[in-house]
Design a protein that fits this description.
Helices cover about 55% and strands about 0% of the residues. The chain is mainly alpha-helical and about 140 residues long. The relative contact order is 0.08.
């Protein structure tokens, strides 16, 4: 909210909630009426918006309109009152349909790899042959 809008709203609140002065029977005539009329005119110019016919809105009303409301209680009542008895396969299909394509949305699939406990590919004869060729003995 801009500072100008806030100031304008506060001026409106101050004007609407200002206590009304009781009528005073002994009013001096002349200059005070002019001053009061001039003050009202300047205040009206301050409150006037740029668009014709627009009335400035109260900052408090704007805040209450845009204020975030807490829907926790309403949502909890709704969630606890309705119980769904769908089959597990149906819920899995729905979850799979709503899952995104990004890697972070995909479930982690763990594959079990079994290590071979077998020996080597080479036989003892191959080792002897390699030893003779390499060392020449």
């Amino acid at each position: 909210m801009s500072a100008a809008l806030l100031r304008r709203g506060l001026e409106l609140l101050a004007a609407s909630e200002a206590p009304q002065a009781p009528p005073n029977p002994a009013k001096p005539s002349g200059a005070p009426k002019k001053r009061a009329r001039k003050a009202q005119a300047t205040q009206a110019q301050k409150l006037r918006n740029s668009a014709k016919g627009k009335v400035p809105k109260s900052a408090l009303a704007e805040y209450q309109k845009r204020e975030c409301r807490d829907h926790l209680r309403l949502n909890l009542n709704f969630m606890t009152s309705t119980r769904s008895t769908l089959a597990e396969s149906v819920t899995q299909k729905i979850l799979l349909q709503n899952r995104g394509r990004k890697a972070c949305d995909r479930p982690v699939v763990r594959t079990t790899t079994t290590k071979k406990t077998g020996g080597t590919v080479f036989t003892e004869e191959d080792f002897r042959k390699f030893q003779q060729e390499y060392f020449g003995s």
